[in-house]
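EI: anyone free to look at a 391-residue chain?
SC: sure, send it
EI:
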Amino acid sequence: MVSAVQSVPGLSLQLTEEQLMLQKMAREFTAKEIIPVAAHYDEHAIFPRDIFDKAREVGLANMNVPEEYGGMGASLLDEVIVAEEMGYGCTGISTSVSTNGLGDLPIIIAGTEQQKAYWLGERLIDKGELVSYCVTEPAAGSNVVGMETRAEKQGPKYILNGSKTFITNASYANFFTVFAKTDPSAGHKGISCFIVDRDTPGVSISKKFDKLGQRASDTAQITFENVEVPEENRLGPEGSGFLTAMKVFDYSRPGVAAAAVGLLRRCMDESIKYAKERETFGVPIYQHQAVAHKIAEMAINYEAARLLTWQSAWIVEMGQPNPRLSATAKVFASDSAMKAAVEAVQVFGGYGYMKEYPVEKLMRDVKVFQIYEGTSEILKNIVVRELFSKK
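SC: here you go
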């Protein structure tokens, strides 16, 4: 007989003691600080600054800032563990809390020591500020190379003009990591990345978007009009921005997938609870195979999506980022969560369509996972590219 737990050389699916403690802390934080207020924050589209501050105090925000700049230097797998737990509570609130971990990635990846010490250490850690990641544009969408924002070099500074849209935390961010074309004729090699302070003249934030779901997450458009950006705020060499953006996605997509996994688990748990309590034809509805199989599929997809997400995080930690794997994890987790949310509403029947029951919000929140951080269609193109480029 095979024992229940085996040790396989070079492979372990067991979290460390520290990771289990982190998971427990994130789960308790979510139960105490997020779940009780999630419906209220969603209904009124309230930005959860108070929850971000509490998360920052206990080490659940700014997790990826290296220790030498005052952060905890968490691994990507650590971030994924926390993202699942917070995503279970509310993906709108969890997105707001975790966005610094996206906005700061260009600085971590391409910044100088001086840039990291100031923007990561002083601004994010010491002052508790927020940073937003600015790539998407109104006309370009998923086509990063098609961006129209320009940064023209003039002596020791750049003049930035253009706009970015669907920017998370834009209304509250203190600075931005912004991608712009410094050489429009050079294609992807003509893109550079800059740190732009919110208070710089010419930076303006539009009224936030009124969204279908994840309403506790602020989303707005930013316009740059003749914004002067000092050369020392450029991240990496001129023309290296596209490569930086692609590296960012290797690190960010597992976290997005993990939040979708958390929402999927919430759909499953709510469906199990309801299916035990609700009776039709004299028995709890989970005893009807049509209902039971829906919940079984949630459980199957949850286990598969979580393992795939963990693998995509682990391979980045091993120094072998794999665009195909991170894309695969994000697509599978997003699509599985979407299916789980639709089926959870079906399990609840007419009640599932009512706001007083939790699955209505889950269904609204989940859709954007198939859109942001790369649409499922674009990510499938990446999978195809990677598959056939190896042939």
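EI: The two ends are 41 Å apart (CA to CA).
SC: 👍
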